[in-house]
TrEMBL record:
<dbReference type="Pfam" id="PF01132">
    <property type="entry name" value="EFP"/>
</dbReference>
<keyword id="KW-0251">Elongation factor</keyword>
<dbReference type="InterPro" id="IPR011768">
    <property type="entry name" value="Transl_elongation_fac_P"/>
</dbReference>
<protein>
    <recommendedName>
        <fullName>Elongation factor P</fullName>
    </recommendedName>
</protein>
<dbReference type="GO" id="GO:0003746">
    <property type="term" value="F:translation elongation factor activity"/>
</dbReference>
<dbReference type="InterPro" id="IPR008991">
    <property type="entry name" value="Translation_prot_SH3-like_sf"/>
</dbReference>
<comment type="function">
    <text>Involved in peptide bond synthesis. Stimulates efficient translation and peptide-bond synthesis on native or reconstituted 70S ribosomes in vitro. Probably functions indirectly by altering the affinity of the ribosome for aminoacyl-tRNA, thus increasing their reactivity as acceptors for peptidyl transferase.</text>
</comment>
<dbReference type="GO" id="GO:0005829">
    <property type="term" value="C:cytosol"/>
</dbReference>
<comment type="pathway">
    <text>Protein biosynthesis; polypeptide chain elongation.</text>
</comment>
<dbReference type="GO" id="GO:0043043">
    <property type="term" value="P:peptide biosynthetic process"/>
</dbReference>
<dbReference type="InterPro" id="IPR012340">
    <property type="entry name" value="NA-bd_OB-fold"/>
</dbReference>
<keyword id="KW-0963">Cytoplasm</keyword>
<keyword id="KW-0648">Protein biosynthesis</keyword>
<dbReference type="InterPro" id="IPR014722">
    <property type="entry name" value="Rib_uL2_dom2"/>
</dbReference>
<dbReference type="InterPro" id="IPR013852">
    <property type="entry name" value="Transl_elong_P/YeiP_CS"/>
</dbReference>
<comment type="similarity">
    <text>Belongs to the elongation factor P family.</text>
</comment>
<feature type="domain" description="Translation elongation factor P/YeiP central">
    <location>
        <begin position="67"/>
        <end position="121"/>
    </location>
</feature>
Amino acid sequence: MISAGDFRNGITIELEGNIYQIIEFQHVKPGKGAAFVRTKLKNIKSGGVVEKTFRPTEKCPQARIDRKDMQYLYSDGDLYYFMDVENYEQIALDKTTIGDTLKFVKENEMCKICSHNGNVFAVEPPLFVELQITETEPGFKGDTATGATKPATVETGATVMVPLFVEQDDVIKIDTRTGEYLSRV
């Protein structure tokens, strides 16, 4: 149990049957009346954000989130297969659990599998990936004054906006959180 007076950013709590992560918190002491804690909570499973106020003495059970490194093996229809590299145990996750988090991840790359009480609710890809460009239009000389970009398709099938000087078959580094081009490799 954790009291509302001890809330910090990043802590996960169980509330009303859901698991929430504290995004923002603020201790408020009005001139008149009792103090309270104003929070922004993100539902870990659905991604929705709610605002809630607590009395500083209220207690909530703290949720324990397990993050385990697993290797992404392959996809077969709507199922995605992952393997624990320690004991070679495999699990299959469906597309609703995965979402679009694997659009920049190649087969055999390591991912973090997030679970609560044995129920997997999310997959975290590596922060940065290096992918080869399979298709892009050629850049034209003289178009670079405005920092223009063009769409490029990478080997996983995802589309990334890249600078005009990047050519087909170049290997680029991508930030998986934002989907942005970082550099050529």
